[in-house]
Design goal:
The chain has helices at residues 12-34, 47-54, 82-89, 111-125, 186-190, 205-213, and strands spanning 3-9, 37-41, 64-68, 70-72, 139-143, 167-170, 181-184, 194-199, 232-238. It is of the alpha/beta class. The strands form two sheets. A six-stranded parallel β-sheet has the order 1-9-8-5-2-3, with helices on one face. Helix 2 (47-54) links the parallel strand 2 (37-41) and strand 3. The structure holds 6-phosphogluconic acid.
Length: 245
Amino acid sequence: MNKNTVKVYESAKALAQAAAVAVIDAAEQAIAHRGKFTIALSGGSTPPLMYKQLVNMQSDWSKWVVFVSDERWVPEDDAISNLGVAMRELLGRVAIPSGNIMHPYSHDLDAVNGAERYEMLLRQHASDAASPSGIRLDLVLLGVGDDGHTASLFPGKPAIEEQIRLVTASPHGVLPPPVERITFTFPAINSARQCFILAVGDKKSDVVAWSLKNTLTDHTYPVQRVRLTNGELTWMLDKDAASKL
Ligand code: 6PG
């Protein structure tokens, strides 16, 4: 069963609070039904707003297994590392077992080999034989760029067409920071039980409006390829990002 929902909030803070509650709810459901919660955090400037809310909430953190849906190929102590931000703002401040945090970056691997290694971790910790991709995460968090990218799946780049690999290397897009990345591919994203796309600000309004009004076969923007195989997609927008709907 597929379900697409659009939720609009008065402010980025209200969106972050609602997203945090929804993440905790998803964790509770997953842990109750399957004994663990597999989540992929996203990068960008929006997730830290949500981390500020999450860090004070209650959950059985010991059952969380955490990935990132994309990562810049830099050491985690670099300010632009997505997992580094999550570690500093959330993961290092709640009782998630260190072995349950899947660190993508490794100084002895390049992005291509790093992507292969990360895919192996996905297949190890989120495997699901019933899923066509072989994995099924409970929740994938995504943002959307002004150019319509999501994760590190940039317009016109080969990674958006990838149908076999779950994680691939991705040369930088036109938007900063200009560093190589690894990224979930659409087979990894679309096999999730739930996906939240968080978007804040009027710069996202054109991409959001186009994507939500052209849902069938149009592929103008990479984010339009987020189409869960058997799951629930929720767009979480502040009123500026939703202003052209
Ligand atoms: C990345 C992010 C990226 C981000 C979007 C939206 O590593 O660059 O994963 O896909 O989610 O660019 O970013 P904002 O949350 O800052 O709008």
